[in-house]
Amino acid sequence: MSVAILGGGAFGTALAVALSANGPVTLWAREAAPLIATRQSPRLPGVTLPETVTVTGDLAQAVSAETILLSVPMQSLSGLLAQIDDPLTGKALVACCKGIDLATLEGPAALIAHAKPKATAAILTGPSFATDIAHGLPTALTLACASEARGAALQAQLSTATLRLYRSSDVTGAELGGALKNVIAIACGACIGLGLGESARAALMTRGFAEMTRLATRLGARAETLAGLSGFGDLALTCTSDHSRNYRFGRALARGETIDPAVTVEGARTAEAVVALAERLGVDMPIARAVTAIAHDGRPVPQAMQDLLNRPLKEE
Ligand SMILES: NC(=O)C1=CN([C@@H]2O[C@H](COP(=O)(O)OP(=O)(O)OC[C@H]3O[C@@H](n4cnc5c(N)ncnc54)[C@H](OP(=O)(O)O)[C@@H]3O)[C@@H](O)[C@H]2O)C=CC1
Ligand SMILES: O=C(CO)COP(=O)(O)O
């Protein structure tokens, strides 16, 4: 089965390198010329695409593949899908982005399912830095698809010797785990940037995990999915690593450092979407509210942290 990846940034490039171990791969980028010329994405320096990866700027050609991975930032996903006239009947569309769409408050797989109802929507998510995948370091991810049979086929097609996929039918749990952990990672970066210490970060991770589980289960996810790679696994990675852009964003906010708007920080916009979703559903999400306050409302980070500590004492 042929594979195409839409999005020539860090993750799309890394996936193209990894999946080329299984056979030919097509990589589509909106600005394909530099990628064709250099075989390197500026978003993933030092990684050269193998010859078995065909880079194209022709979207119609790319979506002729049977399995299509969508690896653009979450807030760009609906626009990209709208550019594809083809209903993509029978194809597998695998979301590789992490977030919640601000316009619809949907996760990536739900958004794909609504935009292309004649295709099969799935999601590939979990703890994995693009650089690790591209360099062939061992990585385990969740491949979630509502159809058990399509999920099993995708699991086999997209696993490699170093990219180990676990299968799930809980698409909601997988997409929310990946989206929500980025919000908590911003809070953890802010905590460390403010010098509040590692004990405070562990508390934020734990209470953040409670918050993630509360919202996800309210939306029909299984709690055990949140405890898996796509939730707990990715939370652990993203909240503790300098490689994470979300973590670094929170740390920079706390330190008053300049933020580069060209860097993809999914948790910033997703925090806004989460707050809106949680309010609609009556779910308490204090850490997401704090992240929205520091990222968008100009609330100073020390005050936002104090707001969290000042909340009434409660049962765990
Ligand atoms: N990097 C990582 O380690 C991982 C990332 N992810 C997820 O993958 C998704 C993509 O992130 P990542 O690749 O890292 O981000 P990058 O910032 O590295 O790249 C984003 C890419 O998307 C392209 N893009 C943006 N908007 C559009 C659009 N409307 N149409 C077509 N292309 C578009 C950009 O093009 P241009 O360069 O022209 O701006 C760029 O090539 C995110 O949801 C992220 O959470 C998941 C796991 C790991
Ligand atoms: O999702 C990721 C790791 O699993 C990448 O994290 P950042 O987007 O924070 O860099």
UniProtKB/TrEMBL annotation:
One of its GO terms (biological process) is glycerophospholipid metabolic process. It is found in: Cytoplasm. SUPFAM superfamilies: 6-phosphogluconate dehydrogenase C-terminal domain-like (SSF48179), NAD(P)-binding Rossmann-fold domains (SSF51735). PANTHER family: GLYCEROL-3-PHOSPHATE DEHYDROGENASE (PTHR11728), GLYCEROL-3-PHOSPHATE DEHYDROGENASE [NAD(+)] 2, CHLOROPLASTIC (PTHR11728:SF1). GO terms for cellular component: cytosol. Residues 170-305 form the Glycerol-3-phosphate dehydrogenase NAD-dependent C-terminal domain. Sn-glycerol 3-phosphate binds at K98, G126, S128, K181, D234, S244, R245, N246. It comes from the Bacteria. The active site is at K181. NAD(+) binds at G7, G8, G9, A10, F11, G12, A130, R245. This is Glycerol-3-phosphate dehydrogenase [NAD(P)+]. It comes from Thetidibacter halocola. It catalyses: sn-glycerol 3-phosphate + NADP(+) = dihydroxyacetone phosphate + NADPH + H(+); sn-glycerol 3-phosphate + NAD(+) = dihydroxyacetone phosphate + NADH + H(+). Its main location: cytoplasm. Residues 3-148 form the Glycerol-3-phosphate dehydrogenase NAD-dependent N-terminal domain. Substrate binds at K98, R245, N246. Keywords: Cytoplasm, Lipid biosynthesis, Lipid metabolism, NAD, NADP, Nucleotide-binding, Oxidoreductase, Phospholipid biosynthesis, Phospholipid metabolism. Belongs to the NAD-dependent glycerol-3-phosphate dehydrogenase family. InterPro entries: 6-PGluconate_DH-like_C_sf, 6PGD_dom2, G3P_DH_NAD-dep, G3P_DH_NAD-dep_C, G3P_DH_NAD-dep_N, NAD(P)-bd_dom_sf. One of its GO terms (molecular function) is glycerol-3-phosphate dehydrogenase [NAD(P)+] activity. Pathway: Membrane lipid metabolism; glycerophospholipid metabolism. Catalyzes the reduction of the glycolytic intermediate dihydroxyacetone phosphate (DHAP) to sn-glycerol 3-phosphate (G3P), the key precursor for phospholipid synthesis. Its EC number is 1.1.1.94. NADPH binds at F11, R30, K98, A130, R245, V263, E266.
